[in-house]
Amino acid sequence: MKSARVLGMVWYRTCCLSSKRLGDEIRPLITPNASIIARFLKSYPVQTFLSPPNQCTTGGRWRAIAALSSVQAKFLHRAHTKRLNLVDVQLTESIQSKQFHSNDQKSIQAAAPATAPAPAPTPATRSVPLSHLKDNFLDGTSSNFLEELQRAWEQDPNSVDESWQVFFRNFTGQSQPSPRAFAGPAVVGSESIQENMRLLLLIRAYQVNGHMKAQLDPLELDRRAVPQELDLAYNNFGERDLDREFSLGFAQMGGVLAESRPPQTLRSIVQRLEQAYCGTTGYEYMHIPDRDKCNWLRERIEAVNPRKFPVEKKTQILDRLIWSSQFENFLAQKWTAAKRFGLEGCETLIPGMKELIDKAADLGVESVVIGMPHRGRLNVLGNVVRKPLRQIFNEFSGGIKPAEVEAGGYTGSGDVKYHLGTSYDRPTTSGKTIHLSLVANPSHLEAVAPVVIGKTRAKQYYSQDTKRLKHMAVLLHGDGSFSGQGVVYETLHLSDLINYSTGGTVHIVVNNQVAFTTDPKYSRSSPYCTDVAKALCAPIIHVNGDDVEAVVHACELAAEWRCKFHADVVVDIVCYRRFGHNEIDEPNFTQPRMYQVIKKHKPSLDIYIKKLNDSGEIKMDMIQSMQDRVMSILSDEFNHSKDYVPKKRDWLAAFWAGFKGPEQLSRVRNTGVNPDILKEVGKKITHLPSTFSPHRAIKKIYEQRLQMIETGQGVDWATAEALAFGTLVAEGNHIRLSGQDVERGTFSHRHAVLHDQKTGERLCPLHHVVQNQAQEMFTVSNSSLSEFGVLGFELGYSMENPNSLVLWEGQFGDFANGAQVIFDQFLSSGEAKWLRQTGLTVLLPHGYDGQGPEHSSARLERFLQMSDDDPFVIPEVEASLRKQIQEVNWQVVNVTTPANYFHVLRRQIHRDFRKPLVVMSPKNLLRHQACKSNLTEFDDVEGHPGFDKQGTRFKRLIKDQSNHSDNEPGIRRLVLCSGKVYYELEEERQRLASTDVAICRIEQLCPFPYDLVQRELRRYPNAEIAWCQEEPMNMGSFQYVSLRLATTMSHIGRGQFEDIKYVGRPTSAATATGFGNLHNTEQKGLVRKALQKEPLD
Ligand SMILES: Cc1ncc(C[n+]2csc(CCOP(=O)(O)OP(=O)(O)O)c2C)c(N)n1
Ligand SMILES: [Mg+2]
Predict the structure, then answer these.
(1) In terms of DSSP H, where are the helices of 601-664?
(2) Where is the Transketolase-like pyrimidine-binding domain (predicted)?
């Protein structure tokens, strides 16, 4: 009874420490009071104790554990005497691991007594595995309760929870016991139990907190308090116990606790644990709820014979470290004043990464997509990705722009050398070849992370790598960025999402313990910079960056983990930065003490050379000759770099072959579809199987869609979109639409995925456009609630293969600014900087319908401001020279008809180049009676509306719908507008029965349709020219349009900028008013003004 209370106290303390709020609730439970425990045990089936923590509420689990505390030892005893091995081990594991899952080191220490509380143990006569214990000390109310429960079960098995039924069946031997369980029980006293429990706690303490004692910091500046739990005395062990043998074997456990381990002395157990957990590698994995994963790690970490590298391997590691170190030295010598963000202080990254890649290749990985920041990028490019050194050196010297060697000149604006990306096929040590691509990135730290993941996922799609074994992502991070940038978290959270997973990313943190000039204590609140990854239950391997073999071990383990469990893993290389943030920065201004230490600190290569030399494993003359060889190759490459001629841009490789750069004309193509195909696809995408029970309202919507297809009348927005997707799929293209709630559509209009009302089963009619269509060919997926992460992902996805239409939809256009970095740094400028094209399409709901400042504007003005078409230059109109759309950085459209939406989506694919497309999507037009198109506007039949000599196409401008001739001198005003305000203007015109005002819609704002605007200006020679928008004057498209409109007007002698009449809201700080009445007044006012009889002022 007393012992039970002691055990109860242990658990109680654990519970209280981990969740102080639960203390009062738990306190009564540790007193073995049958009725209370009964109540709790009834509420908590066996699984509550056994299931991973994430499968029951934390509070529930703690309460359950507390309830169990006083009966736990009874279970051990009973279970073993009745040959039930499994349950007790699981119970022990589950409870004890819970204690140690708390990483709140400070609180554990604070709550723990200063000295060991319990009396020194009496040495046991012999070692006894816990699984062989037999004791009968547990009398009392807790066991009484169990007996009562057992009696109740014996009388009526169904009177207790099913889990307890199973338990008692096992308990009484009514189930088949495992053969292992027949090992003969040994009889020992309660002290032995306690002693074994304490040893278990000690082992657990190493597993959980060993990393706190590990020698991770090469500079030894990080003086962390060693947790008390790792102290023998704290666990009531002393010198005299060190040579006693203990046998701890458990089924279900790996590592030191594995059943197969022979009895060991306490000394050897502790030694092993110290080596495993407190050397130059620290492991954090006890937050992982999965027992198998933990055991897998334990087996490797606690292996009896820790991995030892043979001399050949050490030679290879040395060679790689020489390359890494000398590469930086060489650059430093040749370009003394250049910024290169060198790797000095973390040179071991290179042998580590190479090992990671070799190991991954051995395990079946065929290609690795790498994303990394500035630090060490050139070194990685040269030594890991194997970009030719002469090319790197050439670029370093300023290089020749690719344009100078390519006819036509498509150079873009270029980027600094440490941002450029590249890809190569690299042979591995085991004779395989692995494709490595380093993705170009902007300076914005971590922004490339989701892009890399998206690209990896696309590679997996195109190579049918459904198990995600062939393509792997590796992301490198800085310590400051990993903990500081939110997109890290947003990217991590994509890792296990069905439509975003890549089967695990290997993260490597170059943790130089400083971010620019900021110390970690000022840049993060978590103990480790990697703590964010714990949210994913990823193992985190901290490793001292001076120990190259440990770094190589860590990277090897990371590759194995990723390939085994298809999940993320983090290697945190704790290192230092030998120089300032860049080579011309003075670090002593801000980190004087650190840099005093760094100044005296030997480089990792010197440390390794000394180690190998001291041990006699590799002789000094051999090391010298290895170094000489590397130096001579570097010098050779440098000499060749001077006359290095860059090759043709490499984005044309693979899937992009045949695609055109802006210097090569791509002709406008027909986007209309054969009417039979259109109908056929229309039927497929509106077909619901008879076995499917849709929601009534959605059934009706689908019936209406079918009717639209059959009658060819009144096709709405959602149907037009589905037709665009369906016809593109029928043509063999891959479609991927992702974003928040896109399956149904924020405005409940899309219903691309239906849910059976009886079974909950999902149905996506667009999966069935062609026979045996692979589901993923049309992917529509609700995403995580992230803009930055998900848009970045889709961007990366879109860049892999041009034969796909990849779309991201913002919930409301407002939220796009959460992904602003992707728009600014990648989408609007990526082609210019890195010569990489993408046809990524972004749908941003936009429009003023009184929903207030946060749901009205997609900030159209920002997209237009970033557009690079020249406002003062009328582009070439001659068809054979017309490349305006190829030369612009992106397209921005504000489309007003379903048919035009259909064509603009199809146009993304039906051209020989790729260009980002930003669509201001409608909201109230989705159900607007006038916003409908006829099927004849979608097809490619001569004579049908929209058909011209180039077939049916997207209309960049929609002229007035009043059948005006080419010359309408009687029109007194031409109102130019864009977007849904058109319908309000049209309604007002009809209300006024006005015939002397023309209304023209500019559907494509960027690039500006100079040619068509000119045509309309000429059509109405006497008209006053007005620009009408619903956005405030400092927003919307006024500023963008007015400059270009003025250029057009002056070009044809129709006036100047001052002659443009503005009709719209006045300037404003907020995008819209939050008062409904005011909105209506404003909206009506601007519409009336646009059509007023009097001339505009
Ligand atoms: C999003 C973003 N914010 C700020 C910066 C400016 N900046 C460049 S490097 C750097 C420090 C990065 O620290 P860390 O991630 O630890 O990498 P390290 O330079 O130490 O390798 C900062 C703040 C940036 N590039 N990107
Ligand atoms: Mg840093």
Answers:
(1) 604-615, 620-641
(2) 715-928
This prediction has a pTM of 0.84
Q: How far is the CA of 129 from the centre of ligand 1 (A)?
A: 52
405: pLDDT strictly greater than 50: no
Residue nearest to atom 20 of ligand 1 (CA): 515
> What is the maximum span of the chain, computed from C-alpha positions, in angstroms?
114
Q: Residues lining ligand 1, CB < 6 A?
A: 375, 443-445, 478-481, 510, 512, 514-516, 577, 581
CA Rg value for the chain: 35
If you average pLDDT over residues 531-556, what whole number do you get?
97
Instruction: Please name which of 239, 235, 261 lies closest in space to residue 248, comparing C-alpha atoms.
Output: 261
Q: In which residue are the tokens 């078409």 written?
A: 869
* 825 DSSP assignment: I
- Closest residue by CA, ligand 1 atom 12: 515
587 alpha carbon – ligand 2 mean position (Å): 13
Distance 477 CA to ligand 2 centre (A): 9
Alpha helices in 335-411 (DSSP H): 349-362, 377-379, 389-396
In 10 A of CB 913, how many CB atoms? 19
Question: What are 242-270's pLDDT values in tens digits?
Answer: 999 987 777 677 777 776 778 889 999 99
Beta bridge partners of 1002: 957
* Lowest mean per-residue pLDDT among 6-20, 234-248, 684-698, 883-897: 6-20
Query: Pocket of ligand 1, candidates 475, 481, 574: which has the most ligand atoms within 8 Å of its Cβ, to mutate?
Result: 481
Q: pLDDT for 1038-1092, tens place per residue?
A: 999 999 999 999 999 999 999 999 999 999 999 999 999 999 999 999 999 999 9
**Residue 1088 CA neighbour count, 13 Å, CB half:** 6
SS (HEC) of 77-99: HHHHHCCCHHHHHHHHHHHHHHH
pLDDT at 123 over 60: no
Instruction: Please report the atom of ligand 1 found closest to the CA of residue 510.
Output: 21
DSSP 741-770: TTTT-TTS----SEE-TTT--EE-GGGGSS
Chain centroid to CA 47: 32
For the chain, domains (ranges, CATH) are 193-302 (1.10.287.1150), 311-399+414-643 (3.40.50.970), 675-875+884-947 (3.40.50.12470), 957-1091 (3.40.50.11610)
In the three-class reduction of DSSP (H, G, I as helix; E, B as strand; rest coil), residue 644 is classed as coil
Whether pLDDT at 188 is above 80: no
Question: Other C-beta atoms within 10 Å of 409: how many?
Answer: 13
- Average pLDDT (168-188) is 44
Between CA 725 and CA 707 the distance in angstroms is: 19
The string of DSSP codes covering 126-163 is S---GGG-------SHHHHHHHHHHHHHHH-GGGS-HH
pLDDT (0 to 100) of residue 944: 87
Atom number, ligand 1, closest to the C-alpha of residue 512: 20
Query: Which numbered atom of ligand 1 lies nearest the CA of 577?
Result: 20
Report the nearest atom of ligand 1 relative to the CA of 376: 21
Q: What are the residue ranges of helices labelled H in 508-654?
A: 520-523, 548-565, 592-600, 604-615, 620-641
Confidence label for 414 from pLDDT (cuts 50, 70 and 90): low
Q: Compute the distance from residue 1047 Cα to the ligand 2 centre, in Å.
A: 50
Write the pLDDT tens digit of every residue in 927-978.
Answer: 999 999 999 999 999 888 888 777 789 999 999 999 999 999 999 999 999 9
Q: Tell me what pLDDT residue 904 has.
A: 98
**Which ligand is nearest the CA of 821, by number?**
1
As a whole number of angstroms, the distance between CA 1029 and CA 428 comes to 60
> Token pair for residue 921?
């999507």
CA of 37 to the centre of ligand 2 (A): 51
